[in-house]
Design goal:
The complex is a heterotrimer of chains A (294), B (476) and C (319). With 294 residues, chain A is mainly alpha-helical. Chain A has 13 helices and no strands. Chain A folds into two domains: 2-53; 75-293, Orthogonal Bundle (MetI-like fold). Chain A has helices at residues 12-53, 75-83, 86-117, 123-132, 138-151, 159-165, 169-180, 184-192, 197-208, 210-225, 229-234, 242-249, 258-293. Chain B is α+β, with helices and mostly antiparallel strands and 476 residues long. In chain B, the strands form five sheets. In chain B, strands 3, 6, 14, 15 and 16 form a five-stranded mixed β-sheet that branches. In chain B, strands 8-9-12-7-13 form a five-stranded mixed β-sheet. In chain B, strands 1-2 form a two-stranded parallel sheet. Chain B is globular, with a radius of gyration of 23 Å. Chain C has two domains: 3-62, no CATH class; 81-312, MetI-like fold. Chain C has a two-stranded antiparallel ribbon with strand order 1-2. In chain C, helix 5 runs parallel beside helix 9 (182-208), helix 5 crosses helix 14 (273-283) and helix 14 runs antiparallel to helix 15 (287-312). The chains are: A mainly alpha (294), B alpha+beta (476), C mainly alpha (319). Chains in contact: A-B, A-C, B-C. Chains B and C meet through helix 1, helix 3 and helix 18 of B and helix 3, helix 7, helix 13 and helix 14 of C.
Chain lengths: 294, 476, 319
């Protein structure tokens, strides 16, 4: 920069050095600055949501926005449970989500094992068929599934969401990857010790893919806990999960109070955050692994 | 009709079999009910399933063998609730009693889901009940619940779009609540006079706002401009009610068997003018951006003093109170006169399902709901009015004593004193019609299309929608 | 029960089968493992057949009918597709979906990448943890609840966002009520939520790169940026590809956010293809026409997935 004009022999290295230090400093602080700004951008809406959920209805729309929950209007939280059957809806969410997760764990643990470690005719073909069905979005099948659910008498039951979501091509694929990482020698020694095929699966392989099961469980939990489209179609009021409960809080004819709606948002977040605190390692691993291994 | 229904069910079974699933699910949740108990499923709209509990309690006290169950369906507006009911029925669930506002009355009747009530009423041994009921209910409300000569719902409530004022905003700007005869020009003066902008031209207080929907959006302007979305004819028939129960009531003269909304006329000069009016107000910054969904929080705007005028009916009286508005903070007046003062309204009530397995008990519920006991206990009307009662005797000033507005007599007066008042257009295909209406309203109100273009295209889409329909109305 | 007793009791076939299966040879072992394979696959295959593969064929079939479930279906051949080609809502819905996809995916991938590169340089554990958690938090929320509170935040007159923009001297921006802006706003809101996903993918990718490569790129200043571009980015291409393709497939199915925030408005400006499908199928109960639109959604995603498979054929996927 300015050193260009006053450049002299012997001085170059000092100028260069200064430039490098400056550049180094910039290289350190500019990214940090960007990160800090972005974290504010990301967190501010959540903070506003929490603080507004604690404000009385009349104050919820004030400009300038208030960031501190000055009123501590906790009655908004009570109203959430009065306005819609929110407690019931939390329970619905929990049953549907855990039911689906459990179903997926079982089917995927079995299918992944079959694909990874068992040899049989047509395996590779079946594997590709299963993979190919990942390309079918639920929107493309929702009408026939709706008719099927109707004819099975399962409309407006938890089953209407759990059953169709239980077979998981993604889960089978993910767990296959985990089974493949287990050294084959383990299997051989177990067989020499007289283990039968079931014991081999149950006592040797299954414990070793626990991390994979955890990854699948948490990814599936996050996805199904937050589902909106299918419950909107397959369930009604009492059986709605909280994603739709929040939506309902906005009220018939949009007459719901903003503070109460936001209190509902905050309540719905609590279980997910708890799960995240316990399972974040697996969640993060799951996402990263998805990218590395496909 | 019933042969068709049977066929469709058989087809469904065939499809299920063809689906080849053969999947027999065991352990389905099956509700066990005592042998001689009769359970009726009553569908209610809105979130609070306790609203009608007192009505159910009356029935269950009278007949211990009846058990009333609620099926609560919610949506942002009537057409969404109607869609939920359709989906519910399409999913093979049965309800005995369903809710429909005017928006969906002909929809359920036209699909053969709702049963005509004519015979039940005329052959009811308790004729005094019906004489008393109809004498208390304005004929236009009854007519709005009719389709091709038959009555499908006894009206429970109604809302006509009147103009609500935030009296504080009015007073701050030196205005008063206008008189009954006020005009569109008076309205414009107040709307512009109460709008407040900051230095950079952003509006801080809006003179006028509305929500993008079928009822009460800019529909009231269409009516007072002398237009409508569809041609409005009367079906023949219905003399059983007009001659049988409304005899001598001048207001019942010339009524028929329900409306027929046959031909779309959405781009008539009157409708274009009406849309131009609300678009102009938006462009001037008198009206905020009109959106559907969370963009719209009119009650919030209104109760916090950020808005002066908006269309609403009696349903706002109690709700504004719940939002913290004191009596006297708001008032109401008729819709202003333009070419005429024809108001638009919608009714609400329950219909009897054709697939009900306990139609008699379901009918009992419907009767109790519209009886004096029903009106005196229902939470819709007690302790405050959250929707205008269809029965004149429960819509009087004393009903609004605790909440206001002071001019509460305009609610029923809209029917009694304005004979031209008629329901919003709602043919059996009202659901897709409403989507088209709100869509092109959005086109105009976002400036993407001028009023004429928006309405020409709305008209074209309404025409193709109408042409796709099977014949719902008789040939006359 | 024992196989030998069964066969000696002369139950023939079953005993023979049992013996065939459980004979103590490599052959028997192979057979047992094959049988186990089929058994283990059964729930997944059956489930996929019933709830995914079968229904997609039924969708094709239904798209040839006019059917509202209350009345018997009418076979109308390709009329639904003819109607679809002339249906403005479908065409605009497709356009909006594509616009949203490009905007949302481009922003969540580029921002995720920038943030991951920046976080990767940070050595302080707690700071890394803070940033990682902050960026990740929105991903835990449902699209529905994000749409609900963002609807208020982006409110033109009373939203906090416009309040701060007007402090900077900007006019109030009609984020969700202007036809040109609404899809952009929804894409921003969606990217806000999904940023954590791409961010983590890239962070994972960076963690797997060898330290020398990163050191080489860690020269500061312009030179560093250039190296970043020419060395690190290509090494991250599998992750970029993955984030892009999964992002695109997800974005093509967008429904929750525009449905909750705008119901597709103003006009048709935020109506997406899936929303049009939902409206026809579950609001107007037109199962035939709804299926025809569903087929379009399917073909779109199929095409995208085919691209994905093709790009990955030997690389990261089938390993």
């Amino acid at each position: 920069m300015a050193s260009n004009a006053t450049r002299m022999p012997g001085d170059i290295s000092a100028a260069e050095h200064r430039r490098q230090i400056l550049s180094h400093q910039l290289g350190r602080w500019v990214p940090l600055f960007i990160l800090a700004v972005m974290s504010v951008v990301i967190l501010a809406p959540i903070m506003w949501t929490i603080s507004t959920s604690l404000r009385s209805g009349v104050d919820s729309f004030t400009v300038p926005p208030k960031w501190l929950p000055t009123d501590l209007a906790v009655e908004n939280y009570a109203k959430v449970f009065e306005t819609v059957p929110f407690a019931r809806q939390i329970l619905n969410s929990a049953i549907i989500t855990w039911g689906t997760v459990l179903g997926q764990l079982i089917t995927a643990a079995l299918a992944g094992y079959a694909f990874a470690r068992l040899e049989f005719k047509g395996r590779d073909l079946l594997f590709w068929v299963v993979l190919a069905t990942m390309m079918i979005p639920i929107q493309a099948t929702v009408i026939p599934v709706f008719i099927l659910i109707r004819n099975l008498g399962l409309y407006d039951t938890y089953w209407s969401l759990i059953l169709p979501a239980t077979p998981t091509a993604f889960g089978a694929f993910l767990l296959r990857q985990y089974y493949l990482t287990i050294p084959i020698e383990l299997e051989e020694s177990a067989l020499i010790d007289g283990a039968n095929q079931w014991q081999l699966f149950r006592q040797v392989y299954l414990p070793l893919v626990k991390p994979g099961l955890a990854v699948l469980a948490i990814l599936s939990f996050n996805f199904h806990w937050n589902e909106f489209f299918r419950p909107l179609i397959f369930l009604q009021h009492e059986n709605y999960p909280i994603t739709i409960g929040i939506f309902q809080l906005q009220g018939y004819m949009m007459t719901g109070s903003i503070s109460v709606v936001l209190a509902g948002v905050v309540v719905s977040l609590v279980p997910v955050i708890i799960i995240f605190l316990f399972g974040q390692r697996y969640l993060i691993e799951g996402i990263m692994r998805g990218a590395i291994k496909g | 009709m019933s042969a068709e229904k049977k066929m469709s069910r058989r087809d469904l079974l065939k499809m299920a079999a063809a689906g080849g699933t053969g999947l027999v699910m065991s352990g389905l949740p099956v509700r066990v009910i005592a042998q001689d108990m009769v359970t009726i499923k009553v569908q209610t709209a809105g979130l609070d399933d306790n609203t009608l509990q007192p009505v159910a309690d009356i029935q269950m006290a009278r007949n211990p063998n009846v058990n009333v169950e609620w099926v609560v369906l919610t949506g942002i507006d009537h057409e969404e609730v109607a869609a939920k009911i359709l989906a519910l029925v399409a999913a093979g669930e049965s309800i005995d009693v369903g809710y429909a506002a005017t928006e969906a009355c002909q929809l359920f009747a036209g699909q053969g889901l709702a049963a005509p009530l004519d015979d039940r009423i005329t052959s009811d041994p308790d004729q005094d009940f019906w004489t008393d009921f109809f004498s208390d209910v304005h004929p236009s409300l009854t007519e709005a619940m009719m389709y091709e000569g038959s009555l499908y719902e006894p009206p429970r409530d109604f809302n006509a779009a009147n103009m609500y004022f935030n009296t504080n905003v009015l007073a701050e700007n030196g205005f008063e609540v206008p008189g009954e005869e006020w005009t569109k020009d008076d309205f414009l003066e107040i709307a512009r006079g109460t709008t407040k902008k900051d230095d950079s031209g952003n509006t801080e207080v809006f003179g006028y706002a509305w929500t993008n929907r079928l009822w009460g959006s800019w529909m009231p302007w269409i009516f007072v401009a002398g237009g409508n979305l569809y041609t409005e004819e009367r079906a023949p028939g219905g003399s059983w009610v007009w001659d049988g129960y409304y005899e001598g009531d001048m207001a019942a003269d010339g009524r028929g068997g329900g409306f027929r909304w046959r031909e779309p006329v959405a781009n008539s000069a009157e409708v274009v003018e009406a849309l131009q009016l609300v678009v102009d107000l938006w462009q001037e910054g008198v009206t905020p951006d009109i959106a559907m969904g969370t963009g719209q929080t009119l009650t919030g705007f209104y109760s916090t003093g950020l808005l002066c005028m908006t269309p609403a009916g009696g349903f706002w009286a109690g709700r504004l109170g719940n939002e913290g508005m004191a009596k006297g903070d708001f008032d109401v007046q008729y819709w202003p006169n333009w070419r005429n003062q024809k108001h638009q309204f919608g009714t609400g009530g329950h219909w009897l399902s054709t697939t009900s397995t306990a139609p008699d008990e379901a009918w009992d519920f419907m009767k109790i709901e519209v009886s004096h006991e029903g009106f005196q206990s229902s939470i819709f009307f007690n302790p405050v009015i959250i929707t205008t009662p269809s029965r004149r005797s429960y819509s009087q000033a004393d009903a609004f004593e605790s909440t206001g507005p002071a001019n509460s007599d305009v609610f029923y007066g809209t029917l009694d004193d304005h004979p031209s008042t008629s329901p919003i257009p709602a043919p059996p295909w009202s659901n897709p019609m409403t989507t088209i209406f709100t869509t092109y309203t959005g086109f105009a109100m976002s400036g993407e299309m001028g009023p004429q273009q928006a309405l020409d295209e709305m008209q074209a889409e309404l025409e193709s929608l109408t042409n796709r329909q099977p014949q719902y109305y008789g040939d006359d | 029960m024992s196989g030998k007793s069964l066969s000696s009791n002369n139950i023939g076939g079953i005993g023979g089968l049992y013996h065939w299966l459980f004979q103590d040879t490599m052959e028997g072992l192979r057979r047992r493992r094959a049988l186990l394979g089929y058994l283990f696959l059964l729930p997944t295959l059956l489930g996929i057949f019933i709830f995914t593969a079968g229904p997609i064929f039924v969708s094709f079939g239904l798209s040839l009918y006019r059917w509202n479930i209350f009345k018997p279906p009418d076979f109308i051949a390709l009329d639904n597709f003819e109607r679809l080609l002339a249906d403005r809502r479908v065409i605009v819905g497709l356009g909006n979906t594509l616009k949203f996809t490009v905007l949302a995916v481009a922003s969540q991938v580029s921002l995720g990448l920038i943030l991951a590169l920046a976080v990767h340089r940070i050595n302080r554990i707690w700071l890394r943890y803070y940033f990682r958690t902050a960026y990740f938090l929105p991903l835990l929320m449902s699209g529905a609840s994000v749409a609900v509170f963002m609807g208020y935040i982006f409110h033109k007159e009373f939203g906090p966002l416009n309040y701060y923009l007007t402090l900077l001297g900007l006019p109030q921006i009609p984020w969700l009520t202007n036809s040109d802006l609404v899809m952009i706003s929804i894409a921003i809101i969606s990217a806000w939520r999904n940023l954590g996903f791409t961010f983590l993918i890239f962070l994972g990718g960076l963690a797997n790169l060898s330290q020398e490569v990163l050191d080489a790129a860690d020269v500061d200043g312009a030179q560093g940026l250039r190296r970043l571009w020419s060395v690190v980015i290509p090494l991250l291409s599998p992750q970029i590809l993955f984030a892009t393709v999964t992002g695109v497939i997800g974005a093509l199915q967008v429904f929750d956010e525009p449905y909750i925030m705008t119901r597709g408005g103003p006009g048709n400006a935020s109506r997406t293809l899936v929303m049009v499908m939902y409206e026809h199928a579950f609001k107007d109960i037109e199962f035939g026409y709804g299926s025809a639109i569903a087929i379009v959604v399917f073909l779109m995603i199929l095409a995208m997935s085919a691209v994905q498979m093709w790009l990955w054929r030997n690389r990261v996927f089938y390993q």
